[in-house]
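As agreed, record minuted below.
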Amino acid sequence: MKNVEEWFMIRELAREGLSITEIARRLGCDRKTVRRHLRHLGQPRYQARPPKPSKLDPFKSYLDQRLERGVFNCEVLYRELCERGYDGKKTILRDYVQPSRLAARHQASVRFETEPGQQGQVDWGHFGTLLHQGRQRRLYCFVLTLGYSRAMYAEFTVSSAMPDFLRCHINAFSYLGGVPEHLLHDNQKTVVHVHDPGGTHHWNTQYLDFADHYGFWPRLCRPYRAQTKGKVESGVKYIRRNFWPSCPDVPTLEALNEALWSWLSGVANSRLHGTTHEVPMARLEWEKDSLGSLQVPPYDLSLVSSRRSSKDSFISYGGNRYSVPASYALSLLTVREKPEGLLEVYAGLDCIARHNLVRGRHQNVVDPCHLEPVWQALKGRSSDEPRPQVGPRLGPEVSEPQVEVRSLDLYEALAQGEVQ
């Protein structure tokens, strides 16, 4: 029996007086089926088959936890399950995740508003490449947006490393006139080293020191949930759609930032905001009183590393060589790269050398004072004093071999067999 309709048809044809054989022929079913349903007066009831066990069953509790945290990427989930012993196919996983993904897509969200000075949101945007100092570099845009006023600061850089990341923060604080109480970030390496599924944060110690210096609390948004910091996400999109298409063709990073900052003042922060229906700069005047003070010493953004000087009193840094005093040859020294383009070399707490950083590679930067003692020693050498020799030389115990000079006629005689 395929469905209830056929059961009714069998009952109806039987009332008309048709035989079991004729009913089976008309309906295309077996006579035993017709006889069985004529014997039972009630409607047929079918029980659902018990579901077959799935290879995904032991991992469903873990999957439910990950789905609750907003992780719907099946590639990520499949990799995590394989690490836990899952040997099934990816198709089963996709079928299980699909209802949760659709439910999250249609889930209503509530806009989260903050009080003046309470929160700022930080994000990076990628804008292709730029020819910078003779090399093609990736171009990034740092964006910081205040939650209450929607006032925005942005800056283009060719690196998202920690020194540039912190420098952009300082420039943003100066532009906005203060420091918000909280800063919301992605889970990037300059902020947090590890964000495990259990919720434990392993913060970047240098960024925590920077936050303590300026008096704000860093916060992390939920992984795979960009709308947590939707205000700055909208700011990156706004730069990409409004500023970038009409961006002038500028040759340098400095000129590009000048154009961006002019656009921030004349367009982005002076427009009527679509959400607040107020001008961000006007709301910023109210928010400034709630921002933290900038009356603190500037944070040291120097990049510190160690180098061992060479035998000829040079250290290698950034593909170039910089001189140090001759007395510090073959020494382990501390190198500090300053934001203003200076390179300082320390032996312990003493600064023994200071150079301007140079562009390019394979250049020698020499301070004549460093090698002056060596030159003076060379000038004071007497004329009869032996000069240093270049290349290998024989020791006193090694003598040059004596070679006997013979006539060529002797070799001719040997070849003809005349000499034994």
